[in-house]
Amino acid sequence: MSISKNQLKTITSLSQKKYRQKYKLFIAEGVKVVNELLNSSFKIDTLFATDDFKTDISSDKIIRISDKELQKISNLKTPNKVLGLFMIPDEKPLQKNGLSIALDAINDPGNLGTIIRLCDWFGVTQLLCSRETVDCYNQKVVQASMGSLTRISIKYVDLKMYLIETKLPIFIADMDGENVYKSTLPKEAILVMGNEANGVSDELKTLIKNKISIPRFGETQETESLNVATATAILLSEFKRSY
Amino acid sequence: MSISKNQLKTITSLSQKKYRQKYKLFIAEGVKVVNELLNSSFKIDTLFATDDFKTDISSDKIIRISDKELQKISNLKTPNKVLGLFMIPDEKPLQKNGLSIALDAINDPGNLGTIIRLCDWFGVTQLLCSRETVDCYNQKVVQASMGSLTRISIKYVDLKMYLIETKLPIFIADMDGENVYKSTLPKEAILVMGNEANGVSDELKTLIKNKISIPRFGETQETESLNVATATAILLSEFKRSY
């Protein structure tokens, strides 16, 4: 068997968000990530796999292809046996309690992927994203999140409206905020992390009083700010360490 | 003016560690990173810059080139006005006190770059690397460390011997270690972080008693381990937060 022209066209189109939304499909690649998705509640549409990819899923979902064909459709430097098309699940209902992370216009797929993994590690089950944030079904996000994608409820919302309406306390990560090591952090809250270059938007900063920062210990003032994924790691650790 | 064949050959060769060591030169690119290096104790060898790169360094160090030529020598997706050859400085003498990070065979240049930035942020002035760790003058490390490279003393050592000889307490990041939130962490110590896939080598693990871990709060046991740079961020924060 091999890949039809139509299938090739679909696969290629899925690098664009509008086609992912149209077909309600996204791409995941490589044995590890594909197997994690197959073992989750996510539903498979089609697997394109070379003969050495072993799986027990129904054979009508698998199209066996050559290494050359895989090379052709793969977006990885080193294709690894399988490329899967999975269905984008419906968004879960909003959770109104617990600890959530909210992202204000995160651009970099690698950062979003890392933050999804962090949520999974720290038991944060809900991730809110402003509509300007990179799509979580972007393939680079899928690969970087390593299966954690299947365990986190990710919702794209009008972040300003959401934050106005919530009853939970809100904390913004901000360079000029209070020293996080000296702050009292509640168990239930929303932690807002901002864009890589500009931080949290001024609009949200005006709206929200609680601002927290990770103090700089280095002597020079020239040190670049911490990367957003790194800062999220440290702040999540602070929210969770005492509970 | 333009690039001579010999210069082109030198620039190309610097993607390999053996030539960086032979010529004692490394490459940095882009306005921001190059300016940080120019404003540091690092010494410039030659800048290859387009006319719109403004600088006050001596003109005999600058070769003005066209956008096309820059494109040819650049390793960035979007070349940004300048590529500089800088001299690799002599290693500084070992510091025997304070908090140091030691890396056991870190492979990924992006991870090393992020860890260098973290050291800078948290005031860790010495980074020890096992000889199997990726070279810190690898261009991807230089770009990812964003100038922090100039403020951290990085030393490649026989890590096992070093750890046997040091008088400082040593802590190893290990999945099976003691909960870091419940550990007493001294102000002066060496924190050992391990390889991306395998963690710290068994040899070192046998040698060193103190093992610390970041507890997993998520319910499922399937969560991937934390990325090494993310874990370093959290552990450094723990070492520093009470001082």
List keywords for this structure.
elongated; Alpha/beta knot; four-stranded mixed sheet; 9 helices; 60s Ribosomal Protein L30, Chain: A; 2 domains; homodimer; alpha/beta; six-stranded parallel sheet; 243 residues
Would you write up a description of this structure?
Two copies of one chain form a homodimer. Chain A has 243 residues and is of the alpha/beta class. Chain A has two domains: 83 residues, 60s Ribosomal Protein L30, Chain: A (2-Layer Sandwich), CATH 3.30.1330.30; 142 residues, Alpha/beta knot (3-Layer(aba) Sandwich). Chain A has nine helices and ten strands. In chain A, helix 6 links the parallel strand 6 and strand 7. In chain A, helix 5 packs parallel to helix 6 and helix 5 packs parallel to helix 9. The longest helix of chain A has 13 residues. Chain A is elongated, with a radius of gyration of 20 Å. Chains A and B meet through helix 5 and helix 9 of A and helix 5 and helix 9 of B.
What is the number of helical segments of chain A per DSSP (H or I, 4+ residues)? 9
- Strand % of chain A is 15-25%
According to DSSP, the number of beta strands of chain A is 10
Oligomer type: homodimer
The CATH homologous superfamily of the largest domain in chain A corresponds to: SPOUT methyltransferase, trefoil knot domain
CATH topology name of the largest domain in chain A: Alpha/beta knot
Which sequence of SSEs, written as H and E, runs from N to C of chain A?
HHEHEEHEEHEHEHEEHEH
Question: Span from first to last CA of chain A?
Answer: 54 Å
CATH architecture of the largest domain in chain A: 3-Layer(aba) Sandwich
Structural class call of chain A reads alpha/beta
- Stretches with pLDDT under 50, minimum 5 residues of chain A: none
Task: Name the strands of the widest sheet of chain A in spatial order.
Answer: 7-6-5-9-8-10
Secondary structure: helix percent of chain A? 25-40%
Could you describe the largest sheet of chain A, including whether it forms a barrel?
6 strands, parallel
CATH class wording of the largest domain in chain A: Alpha Beta
Radius of gyration of chain A: 20 Å
Counted up, domains of chain A total 2
Please, what is the average pLDDT of chain A?
94
Shape of chain A: elongated
Largest interface: A-B, 34 and 33 residues
